Amino acid sequence: MNEPESDSGPIVWASIIAVTCLLLLAFQKILFLVVPFLVALMLYYILYPLVQRLVLAGMSRGTAASLVTLVFLLLVVLCGYLMLPWITLHLIDWQIAVERYLQGGVSLLERSLAGLEERYGMLQRARLAVMVGQRLNDFTSSFAEHYVAPIALGIAGWTPSLLLAPFLSFFFLRDGHHFHTFLVGAVPNAFFERTLYLMSEVDQAARAYFLGLIKLTVLDTATLAIGLWLLGMPAPLGLGLLAAVLAWVPYVGSILGGLLVVLVAATDFPTEPAMAAWVAGLFILVRLLDDFLYMPLTIGKSLNMHPLVAVLMIFAGGAVAGISGLMLALPVLGVVMVVCEAIGAVVTDSRLMARYWHGRALRKAQASADL
Amino acid sequence: MFGLFRRKKDTPRTERLRALSLFVNLTPGELKIVDGLLHERIFLKDEVIFDKGDEGQAIYIIIDGSVLICPQGKPVDGQVIELGPGTFFGDLALLDNSVRSAQARAAMNTTVAVFFRADFMGLLETHWVIASKISLQLARHIGMRLRDTHNVVNRDQHL
Question: What ipTM score was computed for the predicted complex, to two decimals?
Answer without folding.
Answer: 0.80
